[in-house]
Amino acid sequence: MTQLVQIRQRIKAIETTKKMTHAMRLIAMSNHTNLRSKEASLKSYQESLSNLFALIKHGAPDWTPQFEHTDGKTKTLLILVGSQKGLCGTFNTMLFRYFRNHYETNDKELYDFILVGRKALEFANKKDITAIKKFENLTVRSLGSMTQELTDYLYNNLYKYKKIIVFRNISHSFFNQVPEKSIIFPTTIKDSKPQDLNQYVWEEPIENILQGLCLQNIQASIQLCLFQSLYAEQAARFQSMDSATRNAIDLLETTQRQYNKLRQAKITKELSELNASFSN
Is the pLDDT at 222 greater than 90, yes or no? Predict the structure, then answer.
């Protein structure tokens, strides 16, 4: 009977695990659906700002951002956006490997680091990476406030850096999340045909407009990168929890069969012993 009790306890544990993974699967799918409705508008907004910036930049090709401070730009700022929680398969593992391959090829003194997401902070602690800024609570609700805080910090410290690169995961499809890096500063100008800007009436000098657009473009790029990471995270977690739920169902069926066979064998043995005692 001891073996039957152990198997029965194991069945209960598997059922509990299955309920948990199924619930997390539903939550991930719900979050992914909610985020999907916002993806197109965020991309459109960022692309529109980038195109507008490129259009006006043709009117002032020598313009560069003006800062209150000046400093020798010798460093590159790397922003690593990991997940807030685990249980999402190789989502973080592939990203951290991609990130490590980038910065380990050069001297760490050439970089400053900003970490976003609890898993990114844990990775940095293991690899002895010192961050100048940390943002731990990356969620859908905190996306707006975190974007604003990060943008303000970056814009106040742009004079220190020659380049700012964001590392995060993006969804190529629902079942395919891949790590990717984006250069958000200096702002890249897409190839476009120059237009005659004299047809526009400028209430301010073009340089002032470009200064404001530079800030807005950085903010839109940061928001899109954080959003893409959250969006990919929910898809990865759904896949991981869906796989765990299916495995739990298979294991539950196997364990239940094992329990039934063992129980039936004990019943048959007891009936045989009982018949033998009556025969005697």
Answer: yes
Lowest pLDDT segment from 120-129, 143-152, 154-163: 154-163
Write the pLDDT tens digit of every residue in 78-104: 999 999 888 888 899 999 999 998 887
Q: Are 35 and 231 in contact (CB under 8 A)?
A: yes
Q: Is residue 82 part of a domain?
A: yes
Collect contacts of 25-29 with beta carbons under 8 A, ≥24 apart: 25/238, 25/241, 25/242, 25/245, 28/234, 28/235, 28/237, 28/238, 28/241, 29/234, 29/238
In the predicted structure, residue 271 carries a pLDDT above the cut 70 = yes
Residues 123/82, Cβ–Cβ less than 8 Å: yes
Is residue 114 within 8 A of residue 131, CB to CB? The reply is: yes
Residue 279: the pLDDT is 65
Whether 29 is in a domain gets the answer no
**Which CATH number fits the domain that encloses residue 95?**
3.40.1380.10
Check residue 173 and report its DSSP letter: E
Distances (CA, A) of 1 to 11, 119, 205: 15, 45, 87
pLDDT for res 155: 86
